[in-house]
Amino acid sequence: MKRAFAIVLLVLLTLAAAVVVLNFRDEESIDASLPSSPATPEQIARGAYLAQAGNCMGCHTTRDGVPYAGGRGIETPFGTVYTSNLTPDSATGIGRWGPAHFWRALHNGRSRDGHLLYPAFPYTNYTLLRREDSDAIYAYLRSLRPVVQANRAHGLRFPFNTQPALAVWRALYFKPGSSVNDAEQSAEWNRGAYLVQGLGHCNACHGSRNALGATSGTLDLGGGLIPMQNWYAPSLSDPHEAGVAGWQTQQIVDLFKNGVTHGASVLGPMAEVVSGSTQHLSDADLRAMAVYLKALTPTQSESAPPASPSSDLASNRGAKLYEQHCVSCHGDKGEGVPGAYPALAGNRAVTMKSPANLVRIVLEGGFAPSTAGNPRPYGMPPFATTLNNDDTAALLSFVRAAWGNRGSPVSVLEVDRYRGTAK
Amino acid sequence: MNGLSVLFGCGVFIASLCGAESALAFEDSIAQRVQACTGCHGKQGRAASDGYYPRIAGKPAGYLYNQLLNFRDGRRQYPLMTQLVDPLSNAYLQEIAGYFADLDLPYPAPQPATVTPAVLARGEALALRGDSARGIPACAQCHGPALTGVAPAIPGLLGLPRDYLVAQLGAWRTGNRRAASPDCMAEVARALSPDDVSAVSQWLGAQATPAQAKAVAQLPAPLPKPCGGVAMEAQR
């Protein structure tokens, strides 16, 4: 008995030691000093640009709050994580952080005082950043006006609110990395890879997550339902979803820059990304991201079209609802109006496997983002108060099967699942 | 718009393969662009008084613009509104506000009151004379002698659904609806009892809108309290 106990204890201690060791991988001893010389205007400008590429402000700012002062709640399946104050206030912000502390946060996911950070802050991606880029972002944040705003304690459930649980998670799912130049690929592709996998943290939404919220790596852009938000971030490699292998490079650049392009536009969380991030990036960087995304190995998901749609479409309830509510903009052949109302016929957003976004758009409506290239977007009205779940399911099932579309029907249960998740 | 063609969004990216010529009657106008608004606020923004959504046609532009910002910045709570205005620029929101403000459309018939004449009289007294003993100014002191609003930032109170009025006064009392500080309307609403809210909403909802329903240019006397929304508009 005693012996069995000793063995169990030994195993536990070994595992604990492994967790500790794994948590300190690739960490240098920290040089806590503040920079000895002031940052150059060029470095600050570069940092401002990189902060936009990472959309740092998007999460580190509350609605109507001071930019970068933190406090926005990021809802996760494990509770709410509140973002921190990134302004250089010494008591509540990063005023006492040195560039090495900042680098360690991005590269190793640890805070100034050494505590482990939650991966809602996507250091699983930012670990790929180069040191000079980390230093530039640091210099930019230090140039902001300090704002006194204490960080809010996270609202996570047990055991997720403990550092040991986080250490175990990190031992399993986080390994510090670095961007590796692929000599087989062009400089443009490599730059795109660096932006998409690192600062852009695209897989945070466009990749799948396991039960413990871990993504399957920065290379997975195979699509995923965004936890808690219930928007489906479509696969960027699947030609039946949002794969862009068949697009012109310029078309992809336009979508990032303007929020709209020939045959596509962004709504929901991606509108936020275009608004806060991609519209501000240089054409060269957008082109690099486009080149990288175009070159993704195509995958075939379950979104492949199913066989023959039902034949009596014209007389069904969905068709009548379409006639009543949709036809004046989207047309009786689902053809839309170029430049204003999207076509529904042959539209991947309509036919892809997950109906989450379709339900959200019909019920909540929405605008594409105002951008320099599209300052006055058209908008879709919300039908949440007009269409009940049965109506919505019938309407969407019709739209997904009409005019040669071959999407699967949408059930009332699915509509119910995605209704009411608007934040 | 640099050769853009068919647009569609869906959460994230979407592609469609459509080049079909459209047979729809279509003109590139602000009215077409804001159909997202008229779904709830009624054709041309003239929601009738029998529903919930407020009429926006003809309300002062500054008031409408302030409300769009209030929804976007979290001072008003209605998720459908918030997520609609979230991705839009201030310039575009101002244009949208101006478009609806400039519409001059007939008003719907008022809603018959459903309370006793005594309650209605109480509502009328609050609206036109206030209750100085309790520090409650009359609605008319700020919203204009005919309650049709004051340009550019104070809305008219007639032609609105009773349920909407009750909900707004209630939201102001609980802090769920706010305006830029100092929030004069919050102070007034907090001074009202639930019975007051009901009485004044019943009376307002039952008034016919006068033929001349435009917001007046100026109040006969200064505002009884400082109002952040009015000040914000004056600075613009």
Set down the secondary structure blueprint.
The complex is a heterodimer of chains A (423) and B (236).
Chain A: H1 2-23, H2 41-53, H3 56-59, E1 73-76, E2 79-82, H4 99-108, H5 123-126, H6 131-142, E3 155-156, H7 163-173, H8 187-199, H9 203-206, E4 224-225, E5 232-233, H10 249-258, E6 260-261, E7 264-265, H11 269-276, H12 283-294, H13 317-325, H14 327-330, H15 348-351, H16 356-364, E8 366-367, E9 379-380, H17 389-401, H18 412-418
Antiparallel strand pairs in A: 1-2, 2-3, 4-5, 6-7, 8-9
Helix pairs in contact in A: 1-7, 2-6, 4-6, 8-12, 10-12, 13-17, 17-18
Chain B: H1 30-33, H2 35-41, H3 61-73, H4 79-85, H5 90-102, H6 117-128, H7 139-143, H8 162-174, H9 184-191, H10 194-205, H11 228-235
Brief write-up:
The complex is a heterodimer of chains A (423) and B (236). With 423 residues, chain A is mainly α.
